């Protein structure tokens, strides 16, 4: 397990060079080429757009332009369900031709049907959405039987020589014993794990089951304690990010490290918050008021500890303090003792509602460009 040497060298060299430059830089392009999905997860904020927006797709050229604009060495393709995009094989191949590390995220419902459209490659990984064991995952995605489909897809992809990982989002009410047992099962199957606490998307139907910061820290301590400080399992996350989840690091987020390009444009300020859109990556970087966001700065950021905001911070910390990283790798994540100090929340500016205005502008644009377009929901491809 672990990234191929060529991928590690390419991403590592890029990160060190850009870190030494002292300028803001992206690590991973987060790409959402469509919002449509074949599931309706209660914790998702992407699926309740009007049909005209759900019918939109980024073109192959728009996807290639996005990676050229930002220059990130890796791209994580999500959605919606990216396998619903008819041109997804061409998009993936285009990124591989540019020597980008490609993570294709999927709920796996279409993987058996679509898998022969892809070929194993050292720079390509399937990332299967799996939020724990059968009961945990099927509850998270609001549909029975999805866990078995995902497990079957993992075994199929591995049998065909693909690199496979799972992405696991943890919600409030999760049981630490069951999650640890799930990690053991993934280890038995020789599958790496990308772990992250859930984030309260403003438009998610279920707003009651997202972890706050204190519960996040204690929960991950409880889980990691069952796995020798997390050393028993193989994560794609950096050790310092795992240490942050357990409350041992005081990190502010690095929102530009994983910028999002979707059908609206470059989302401001980050993958999780929709506070406006830039037409270009340069505009996103130069005109976003980055100091206005973060824990203790903005109410919407108060409980966020998600990997797409804090992995970049952990990566920069690892470059600055390699001995800290080495010690952590040897001893594992600390699961007892006092938490590291956190940021005060009292002075954060109030949250602003922006969803309605974004939707209205996008609908007006679509109708102006395609005045005779059908406005009903298109069936899944």
Task: Indicate the topology.
Blueprint: H1 5-21, E1 28-31, H2 51-54, H3 60-70, E2 74-77, H4 88-97, E3 101-106, H5 111-114, E4 124-129, H6 134-140, H7 146-159, E5 163-170, H8 176-188, E6 192-197, H9 213-225, H10 239-245, E7 260-262, E8 265-269, E9 274-278, H11 281-287, H12 307-320, H13 322-331, H14 355-369
Parallel strand pairs: 1-2, 1-7, 2-3, 3-4, 4-5, 5-6
Antiparallel strand pairs: 7-8, 8-9
Largest sheet: 9 strands, mixed
Q: Indicate the CATH topology.
A: TIM Barrel
Number of helices: 14
CATH architecture: Alpha-Beta Barrel
Strand order of the largest sheet: 6-5-4-3-2-1-7-8-9
How would you describe this structure in keywords?
381 residues, alpha/beta, TIM Barrel, nine-stranded mixed sheet
Briefly characterize the structure.
By secondary structure, this protein is α/β, with parallel strands linked by helices. The protein contains 14 helices and 9 strands. The chain has one domain: Aldolase class I (TIM Barrel, Alpha-Beta Barrel), CATH 3.20.20.
